[in-house]
Specification:
The protein is mostly helical. It is built from six helices and two strands; from the N terminus they run αββααααα. α3 packs antiparallel against α4. The chain starts with 19 loop residues before the first helix and ends with a helix.
């Protein structure tokens, strides 16, 4: 995982700067190089979350929810899930678990909200969404605890999620 370089001096050159290759590329299991999927996963999560917050705050038109749901399925969902699979290929189990799980979160949330709007889950109660978000909040908190043993940068990122 590329953030590990922030904790190890072996990834610094003689001028105490991080090597560009260590920040951008990860070694995959076959020994070749793959691009770092973390920026895709982080941007997918961030952009979709910002759009959802505009909707929740009432700043936007009601039609923004459709855009948020589309982002939840494809950018926040599928693209982030793909970033998680690329993290597996790069050998980063934590990144793979986080990105693929949050990608699945966005896909499931968007699918549920669309189905609920269409009347498929007409009997769903507010407590159902409360339970759903509590479970994901617990998952995020556990990942936050794990990051305290990985890097300070990840701890800050997951601290803002929780």
């Amino acid at each position: 995982f590329w953030l590990k370089g922030f904790l190890c001096n072996s990834n610094r050159d003689t001028n105490n700067h991080f090597k560009f290759e260590q920040l951008v590329f990860s070694n995959n299991m076959a020994g070749g190089k793959v691009a770092n999927p973390a920026p895709l996963g982080l941007f997918a999560f961030g952009v979709t979350t910002i759009l959802l917050n505009f909707e929740n705050a009432g700043i936007s038109e009601k039609t923004l929810l459709n855009l948020v749901l589309a982002h939840g399925l494809f950018y926040g969902g599928a693209a982030q899930f793909a970033a998680g699979m690329w993290e597996f290929a790069a050998g980063n189990v934590f990144g793979a678990s986080a990105f693929s799980s949050y990608g699945a979160f966005w896909i499931s949330l968007a699918a549920f909200l669309w189905a609920h709007q269409g009347g498929l889950f007409a009997g769903a109660q507010e407590i159902d969404m409360c339970i759903y978000f509590c479970v994901w909040g617990t998952f995020s908190f556990l990942l936050f605890i794990i990051t305290t043993r990985i890097s300070k940068a990840l701890t800050v990122v997951f601290g803002t999620v929780v």
